[in-house]
Design brief:
Number of helices: 2
Radius of gyration: 30 Å
Shape: elongated
Order of helices and strands: HEEEEEEEEH
Distance between the termini: 122 Å
Strand order of the largest sheet: 7-1-4-3-2-6-5-8
């Protein structure tokens, strides 16, 4: 074999290995695998907030999957596909809730596969629950505090005006 062809074969093999390494690393970083160890679980929510594709799915704080496809079916009905480990196949009493991960609005899905004897029928959706966001609670508390301060300012302002009028009346006499 000619030396020129050996160099071409070596370069070609290196390119193939580099491409395979790139896609393998990409799959590893996104939490996907080449095996069929995952299954899709369909969930329907009334409202999902800032939930996005790729957000984590957890059971008791342990990551078991990611949020897949999100589609708006109609107003007040959002279909979310969860990609979870096959070991956690949903049962008839499965529960799903969207939880807040931090104050910045990041979300995760809390998934409970259930303890019933029967598995959920193929294609049947779980009705999910959206929880109140920590940022929304903080905003609500801030609004309440502002109302209290404005009310206090009004009371003090009226009392101050009465005191000034009483002082002026006393000085005139």
């Amino acid at each position: 074999m000619d030396l020129y062809y050996k160099q071409e074969i070596t370069v070609g093999l290196l390119v193939i290995v580099a491409i395979a390494g790139f896609f393998g690393g990409l799959m590893w970083l996104t939490g996907r695998s080449f095996t069929t160890g995952r299954m899709d679980v369909n969930v329907v929510f009334e409202e999902i907030g800032t939930l996005t594709e790729g957000d984590p799915v957890q059971i008791s704080g342990f990551m078991v999957g990611t949020v897949g496809l999100i589609e708006l079916e109609t107003e007040g009905r959002v279909s979310v596909q969860l990609e979870v480990d096959r070991r956690f196949q949903p049962k008839t009493d499965a529960q799903v809730a969207i939880r807040s991960l931090d104050f910045l609005g990041a979300k995760y899905v809390e998934y409970s596969p259930g303890t019933a004897a029967n598995f959920l029928a193929e294609g049947q959706a779980i009705v999910g629950v959206s929880s109140v966001d920590l940022a929304e609670i903080a905003t609500g508390l801030t609004d309440d505090a502002i109302e209290v301060l404005v009310g206090a300012q009004r009371i003090l302002s009226e009392r101050m005006t009465e005191d000034v009028h009483a002082t002026l009346a006393a000085v005139r006499e």
